[in-house]
């Protein structure tokens, strides 16, 4: 990870770069600020810059020296990652026990937060923590001399999730650091870090990203997203690329739901049983949770179309694509069928929630929709 790989944060990068260049990188540094803005990437870029043997005149790591290659492939012998983990029956669990999951996580979700990590660990019992066994592991690793006459770096994610025993153990090496060791902590909620630790860290505020930058990022990463849509998503995201990405993914899901809903209504109107059968198979394949979201979405669409038919514009909550479809479709949703259509979809949701066969339920929805959509 080079500094130039990270969008934005120019002043933060400048400060970090100057700390290294002037040999004043503190023993224990904290990057703090809102989640989803790229703090972990800054920490990684800093470690790579520190270790790079051929820094560029622009103040970045070269990306090609052996040390940079090691960093980019998660093989830097002098860099250790610490992060919250689950015990899962492992006594004296450390981050090393979860390193494979962690590397995948960093690669796939460079804009990250605790909730995303938690969902990745797919855990039902216990909260991920940084346990005292991790502090022992860190101390053990920092004791050894470095391999290339270089700094040993610990990148510790979410110090707010350290157990007090762990914090007490680490306090010692923060107060009396070993030579040539650096600890870089990354926190989304610095107010929750134990005060004894927090007071000993040199802090850098990593700010929210500007809306323009988030908009640009969305346009680069979500094909087909229009600029006005990207702008409004960026405004909602409040400077967090992580939030912007999740909003954009939700938009993607609602596009898929709209497409599925349109086809259901169209095929039902055309009384095309063969294709309705294929449609129900496709809907069933969404899986139970997504299918239930689709059924809730469809109920909303029926309701909105009915309201549109009543010409009560102020009550409409439709995005542009939904509105374009509904402008033509709404005359078909009337007092004659609105309640029965909604009941049909709600009943299907109850059946799916009760583990009924999704394909059978959805075919039933499709066939009954034929009867409910009258030809004019
Ligand atoms: Zn390099």
How is the topology of this model organized?
Elements: H1 10-21, E1 28-32, H2 39-51, H3 66-72, E2 79-82, H4 99-108, H5 114-121, H6 132-143, E3 152-157, H7 164-175, E4 181-187, H8 195-198, E5 202-205, H9 211-221, H10 227-237, H11 241-270, H12 273-284, H13 288-309, H14 320-329, H15 338-353, H16 358-372
Parallel strand pairs: 1-4, 1-5, 2-3, 3-4
Helix pairs in contact: 1-2, 2-3, 6-7, 9-10, 10-11, 11-12, 11-13, 11-16, 12-16, 13-14, 13-15, 15-16
Overview of this protein structure:
The chain has 376 residues and is of the alpha/beta class. It has 2 domains: 3-207, P-loop containing nucleotide triphosphate hydrolases (Rossmann fold), CATH 3.40.50.300; 249-372, Zinc Finger, Delta Prime, domain 3 (Up-down Bundle), CATH 1.20.272. The protein has 16 helices and 5 strands. It has a 5-stranded parallel beta sheet, sandwiched between helices. The N and C termini lie far apart (62 Å). The mean pLDDT is 92. The structure holds zinc ion (ZN). The site of zinc ion has 8 residues, from α3.
